[in-house]
Amino acid sequence: MSYKHLFSRALAAAPGRLHFAAHSHHLWPDASWQGHAEAWDDAARLADHKWDRVFGEVIPEAQRHIAAELALPDPATIAFAPNTHELLVRIVSALPMDRPRVLASDGEFHSFRRQSLRWAEAGRIALTTVPLDQVIETAEAGQFDLIFASQVQFNAGRVLEGIERLAALARPDGPWVVIDGYHGFMAMPTDLSAVADQVFYLSGGYKYAMAGEGVCFLHAPPGFAPRPEFTGWFAAFDDLAAKQGGVGYAPDGARFLGSTFDPSGIYRFNAVQRMLAHEGLTTAAISAHCDRLKARFLAADPLPGLALISDPRARYLAFKGDAAPALYAMLDGKGVVTDLRDDVLRIGFALYQDEGDVDALFGILKG
C-alpha cells in the first residue's frame, strides 16, 4: 500500500529525489503544513493571548499524544524545548553535587557526546563511557550519579536491552537514569508504564514523529530533579501573576521549561498525530510498512561489500565498510538522499516510500 498522498507537498517539491534518510530528516507530511498555518493564524488572531491557547490547549494535546504513545500514566510529566540539548543541560544542572559521576554508552548522539566531553574537559563531570551492551552491568557494578543511554543508537542502530534494570537503580537522590529515545520514539512501539516513575525520557519530532524541528520533549519522573539550576520563566508559568519571591518551580514536568519559544513545532506535531489517527497509522503499522521495504531491499543483496550492523528493529539499515563514503557520494550525485556517519552508510525507510522506490534505489546501486 502507498501512503505517498500524505506527503504530496514534500514529494512534489523535488520530484526527482529518492529520499532514504527519514532517520535523519523525515519529510514533512501535508498535515504539518496545516499545523504550521494554524500556529500562524493563532498568532495573528490572538496576539498576546496566544500563550493562553498554547499552554491551555496546544501543549496539553501534545502531552496526551506522547503519553499515549509511551504508555505514560500522567501527561503532565512532559515538558517541551526547542532541542534535546537544552533539556539535557537542565537535567545535569539539577544534580546536587559539584562533580557528578556520569556513565554513558560510547555511541551517543553529538548533543550529548560534545557537551559531556566538554564538561569532562572542564572538570565539571567525571565521565565514563562503555559499549552499549556493557552499560547495564557497569551501572549495576559502579557508583554513578547520572546514567545516560540511547534507546536506539543513532549511528549503528543498536537497541538498548534491559531499560527496566537501569530503572531499578534510579533514586531521587541518585543515580538518575536518562534514556535518549530519539531513534526509538515512534520508530518502535515503546511502553514506559513500568518505569515511568523512575526514568527520564528524551525525544523529539524531527525524525519519526514527522513534525520537524523545534518540538523536543522530556518525560521527567515525579520527585526527580525538582529544581533545575538552568531554568527559565516558563518553569513557573502558573505563578507569573502572583507576587514574586524566591525561585519557584512547577511541581510537574513544567519545572523543566525554559523561556519564550516558537510553538509552531508543537502545532505541527499535533496536526500530524491527528492525521495518523485518522489514517489508522500506529507506530506498529508504520514499522510494518517500513519492515516490508527493508526486507525487499535486503533480499536483493544490495551492498555485498559492506557489513550490516543495525538491529532489525531500527527504522534504518546501517552498513559499515571502507566503501561507504564513496557509495554515499555516488548516491548523492544521482539524487538519492542517504546518510553517512564516518564509515557507516545509513539507509532509512518511511511511509512516503513504496516498492517502486526501493527497486529504483537497487537499480542505481547495481548501475
List keywords for this structure.
Aspartate Aminotransferase, domain 2; 367 residues; alpha/beta; Aspartate Aminotransferase, domain 1; seven-stranded mixed beta sheet; four-stranded antiparallel beta sheet; globular; 13 strands; single chain
Q: Can you lay out the helices and strands and say which pair or pack?
A:
Layout: H1 8-13, E1 18-19, H2 30-46, H3 50-70, E2 78-81, H4 84-93, E3 101-105, H5 110-121, E4 126-130, H6 135-141, E5 146-150, H7 163-167, E6 176-180, E7 199-204, E8 216-219, H8 264-279, H9 283-299, E9 307-308, E10 316-320, H10 324-333, E11 336-337, E12 339-341, E13 344-348, H11 355-366
Parallel strand pairs: 1-11, 3-4, 3-5, 5-6, 6-7
Antiparallel strand pairs: 2-8, 7-8, 9-10, 10-13, 12-13
Helix pairs in contact: 2-8, 3-8, 9-11
Descriptive notes:
This protein has 367 residues and is of the alpha/beta class. The chain folds into 2 domains: 4-29 and 281-366, Alpha-Beta Complex (Aspartate Aminotransferase, domain 1), CATH 3.90.1150; 32-276, Type I PLP-dependent aspartate aminotransferase-like (Major domain) (Aspartate Aminotransferase, domain 2), CATH 3.40.640. Helix content is 36%, strand content 14%. It contains 11 helices and 13 strands. Helix 2 (30-46) crosses helix 8, helix 3 (50-70) packs across helix 8 and helix 9 (283-299) packs parallel to helix 11 (355-366). The radius of gyration is 21 Å and the shape is globular. The relative contact order is 0.17. Residues 240-244 have low confidence and may be disordered.
